[in-house]
Amino acid sequence: MTSAGDPIRVGVAGAAGRMGQTVCRAIEGAEDMVLAGRADPALGVELGEILGDVDVVVDFTQPDTATANALACVRAGVHVVIGTSSFDLEPLRGLDHPPNVFFAPNFAIGAVLMMRYAAEASRVMKRAEIIELHHDGKLDAPSGTAARTAEMMQGDVPIHSVRLPGLVAHQEVILGDVGQTLTIRHDSVDRESFMPGVLLAVRRVGSLTESPVVGLEHLLFDS
Ligand SMILES: NC(=O)C1=CN([C@@H]2O[C@H](COP(=O)(O)OP(=O)(O)OC[C@H]3O[C@@H](n4cnc5c(N)ncnc54)[C@H](OP(=O)(O)O)[C@@H]3O)[C@@H](O)[C@H]2O)C=CC1
Ligand SMILES: O=C(O)C1=N[C@H](C(=O)O)C[C@H](O)C1
């Protein structure tokens, strides 16, 4: 049993992936956390094997695995922070809690601000389109961030997806009106950009008063 002051015992699902490796390093560097488990097919460790020894799981896996992983966490009494994009959140709604589920389509603070500014601008400018650009290893299109941005904006907002080597994660929202355009752009040039948001979510997921909570803005701006 854990008590106040004990480090948070964190497990990472997708620990051998691009994000998972970065998250493992960030947790190892956090004084109030212990990296207590790493699950990934490449490591030969299944999520179920680490659930007995962790307080929180951070999931950066794949769209078709994140829902089952999160349900396994909840059934084991473990909080879960989900970063995986384009997964089905519906089965995680309406469950008894705690344990709590937190999901952020994007953990970079600049991306959170971009989404908010785009939503606000769309209320007064005539039309908008989104261009999202990612590395060529990304499985889903459109990106979760672009889909969420379009949801937050007024009107029908087309999304264009670019996949190229050399990119990390980038998005441009272009709004147009008579005689003018407004471009709001965010660039994650390094996966470190997501780490402060992930660590914040790990610290806060256990004390959420509702579940699931979607969006880092709720941890940054809500009282
Ligand atoms: N919310 C945010 O801020 C961000 C979200 N993302 C999202 O995070 C996800 C991961 O991205 P990325 O790290 O680039 O992807 P990777 O493909 O590099 O990593 C995913 C890892 O998860 C492993 N995996 C697959 N199934 C399971 C499972 N059931 N349990 C444990 N591990 C599993 C994969 O193994 P194998 O390859 O062997 O299948 C792989 O090692 C994507 O959905 C991406 O869109 C990315 C960046 C930021
Ligand atoms: O796959 C990625 O890399 C990213 N995925 C998330 C998304 O789909 O929006 C977040 C960020 O764009 C990086």
TrEMBL record:
PROSITE patterns, sorted: DAPB
InterPro entries, per database record: DapB_C, DapB_N, DapB_N_CS, DHDPR_bac, NAD(P)-bd_dom_sf
Residues reported in the UniProt entry to bind NADP(+): R38
Cited CDD domains: DHDPR_N (cd02274)
Pfam family, one: DapB_C
Cellular compartments per GO CC: cytosol
Positions bound to (S)-2,3,4,5-tetrahydrodipicolinate: H135, G144, T145
GO molecular-function terms, A-Z: 4-hydroxy-tetrahydrodipicolinate reductase; NAD binding; NADP binding; oxidoreductase activity, acting on CH or CH2 groups, NAD or NADP as acceptor
Functional pathway: Amino-acid biosynthesis; L-lysine biosynthesis via DAP pathway; (S)-tetrahydrodipicolinate from L-aspartate: step 4/4
Record domain Dihydrodipicolinate reductase N-terminal: where: 8-107
Residues binding NAD(+), per UniProt: G14, A15, A16, G17, R18, M19, G83, T84, S85, A104, P105, N106, F107
Localization of this protein: Cytoplasm
Location of the active site: H134 (proton donor/acceptor), K138 (proton donor)
Annotated ranges, domain Dihydrodipicolinate reductase C-terminal: 110-220
EC numbers, comma separated: 1.17.1.8
Domain of life of the native organism: Bacteria
Catalysed reaction, written as an equation: (S)-2,3,4,5-tetrahydrodipicolinate + NADP(+) + H2O = (2S,4S)-4-hydroxy-2,3,4,5-tetrahydrodipicolinate + NADPH + H(+); (S)-2,3,4,5-tetrahydrodipicolinate + NAD(+) + H2O = (2S,4S)-4-hydroxy-2,3,4,5-tetrahydrodipicolinate + NADH + H(+)
GO biological process: diaminopimelate biosynthetic process; lysine biosynthetic process via diaminopimelate
Entry keyword set: Amino-acid biosynthesis, Cytoplasm, Diaminopimelate biosynthesis, Lysine biosynthesis, NAD, NADP, Oxidoreductase
Known role: Catalyzes the conversion of 4-hydroxy-tetrahydrodipicolinate (HTPA) to tetrahydrodipicolinate.
Summary of subunit composition and partner proteins: Homotetramer.
Family of this protein: Belongs to the DapB family.
UniProt cross-references to PANTHER family, sorted A to Z: 4-HYDROXY-TETRAHYDRODIPICOLINATE REDUCTASE 1, CHLOROPLASTIC-RELATED, DIHYDRODIPICOLINATE REDUCTASE
Protein name: 4-hydroxy-tetrahydrodipicolinate reductase
Species the sequence originates in: Capillimicrobium parvum
